[in-house]
Amino acid sequence: MTEFTYGVPQEQDWNALGDDEFRKIIRTEFETNYPQELRFLPHRPPFAMVADWWKRMSARGWIAPFWPAEYGGMGLAARKALIYHEEVERWGITRFQDHGIQMVGPVLIQWGTEEQRRRYLPSILNCENIWCQGYSEPGSGSDLASLQTKAVLDGDDFVINGQKIWTTMAHDASHIFILVRTDPNVKKQEGISFVLADMDQPGITVRPIPDMSGYAEFCEVFFDDARTPQDNLVGELNKGWTVAKSLLGFERIFIGSPKLPEYALEVLETVASARGVLDDPVFRDKYVRLQLDVEHLGASYKHFADIVARGETLGADVSMLKVWATEAFQKAADLIIETAGPLGAMKGSTRMGNVDVNVLAPFYKARPATIYGGSNEIQRNILSKAVLGL
Amino acid sequence: MTDADTLRMLTEAAAAAAPFDAKRVRGWRDKAPGFDRAQWTVMAEQGWLSILVPEDLGGLGLELDAATAIAQVLGYAAAPEPFVAAGIVAPQLLASCPAGETRDTVLADVISGTKVACIAHLNPSGELAFGSTAVRARKTASGYSLNGEYRFVPVPDADAFIAPVVLDRAEQGGKPDLCQAELLWIDAGLNGIEVERETTADGSAHGWIRLTNVEVPAAAQLAAGDIWPIFDAASDYGTIGNCAELLGNMERCLELTLEFLKTRSQFGQQIGKFQVLQHRAVDLWMNKEVARHALTASVATVMAPDVPAAARAQATSSAKARIGQTALHLGNDAIQLHGAIGFTDEYDLALYVNRAIAIAPYLGNAAEHLKRYGELKQRRMEVST
Predict the structure, then answer these.
(1) How far is B20 from chain A (nearest CA, A)?
(2) Which CATH class is domain A250-387?
(3) Could you report the per-residue pLDDT of B323-370, keeping only the tens digit for each?
(4) What are phi and psi of B271, to 5 degrees?
(5) Minimal Cα distance from A297: which residue of B?
């Protein structure tokens, strides 16, 4: 067997460093080299806009912080992974390739064949391939397992027909991983498979869907006799639900991080200061309650982060973080609009006192947050069943 | 930080020594002294009344997280004993006073349970009773002469009240000087003290204490000068203890509610199968969990060595602003999820909800602490920028 090398070698064993030392190295890199104008972008940028930064991360071997070092990742243990993520959020570094780095890599490392890993992981690490996630369908949102997009074997290929929707950044992606129905005659979760496909083919059509902010982050993806080789099946046939569910690791706590509500509070303070209401009692009452909500989100986040740092498994109760974080984020975004007065109507960056503020950016970021990643109603269903036993 | 094993042992011992006993809780309602002195002795024997008192002063010398563990168990049991007021605040304050014959004697009495004491510091409007607004203290040849009123004293039948007083210097033409205060041990049996019991929601009572030419001996002085740092610290510790008691109360309210949702059947099914009730139950649980994590974070800040007073105060108010509000909301929603039975006196939920209502205002309710939190946070942000 020949030795195969993924990505670039790591500079050192990060996990051997002290937490503060590690944080300092990460922070220095981000603060020194991440372009100022790309901090806290209101939208996910197209890859071309952030390519230089991610290629830099790729060259340094930092693009996949949570992958094992043997596969070209930084190999960060949970505690260091949290620190890395905190620094990313603290500096407002844009998300990139969530789906290649966060989903495809870990799935292939856990479930893929050696051949699949060699084929796909290097091109994720060097930014050559950009991945998107084909899960939701027009008729399958919260009830994802009811999905209808079909894959049928034809010789060595799967032939795929159907439609995906809310596929984030599909128009910027070269590849897609999809959940497809491969057996319609069994319990809905047991007839689903996890397959990878190249988007550059006539059978796949992408139509971006502009959202209410006027920007298109998500898309419809149509499959009309699209083809993908049979060896792009990940895991066993009809075991795709298990593969997809296995991705719910410690990353579940990221969606409940306090950083976005903290960022909204900063915008709020800027707006309140420009409008001269920081000492207005009506404003202060709402503002202080929100500060308290965000502070206690931080306290709750720390509880779960400590569990992760101890190397223990998160329970279903972690769903509360997503609910609390996204609802606090929305409250802050709404209060920004209210506090902005007439400026609350302005689209894009607007002059306020002596600063430019994008008043609606937090609103458009916060509004879908209670819907994606399992809507907050679904999270409450989970908590009710798994934690409260109702 | 107290290690996890010690905390678990304390919690288990407390749960065994102070289990919920509905008959006992109901029995002390509307009946002086409102709690069981025999149980108070048990608590003293367990060491709870001296839990924060340093070992060289005869205490257990544990930290604040140990005291909150006990308070939480007592909250869970809806115990009527005034642990926070007389088992945390009073011993903590006494232990912080300079050593002296009176201090040493009364501290020993308080932690052995032979004397029950609590602080008296509010005037009839609920404002701080210092300076010119309430109790007037005058120096005499033999000690002090006090006139005025204290209200909202949490243990009306206490053996003594610990009161901060500011000497009235009007006769010398001077204004009261808050930096020249004195902390006095006022024996409840002194002539001129009249105590009116004002019943609170849970059937216990607050004391309205009227002092008419009360002659307090000079030896009753526990501390003098700038007494506020130790007074504020004890007060913050008490607020944290109060949060823990409310948290225990919430835990039980939620348990009762979940048990009810799982057993009560309507329209041919358990009512806990209705999604609207499930989501409300989740919100109760989630708010309780956030309150719990908030308390953990605040306790860690408050008990950190050399924590600055402003940071301690902010962390304390942060916890109380959260928990004071959450506890009352949780009680309200628990009643609603039960339906009519939740509003009856005979169902135990009422004992918990009324207890939460009665203790939530102690040392400042959620709104007062929200205000203090906001002010401290703003002030500290200004300092740091």
Answers:
(1) 22
(2) mainly alpha
(3) 999 999 999 999 999 999 999 999 999 999 999 999 999 999 999 999
(4) -65, -20
(5) B290
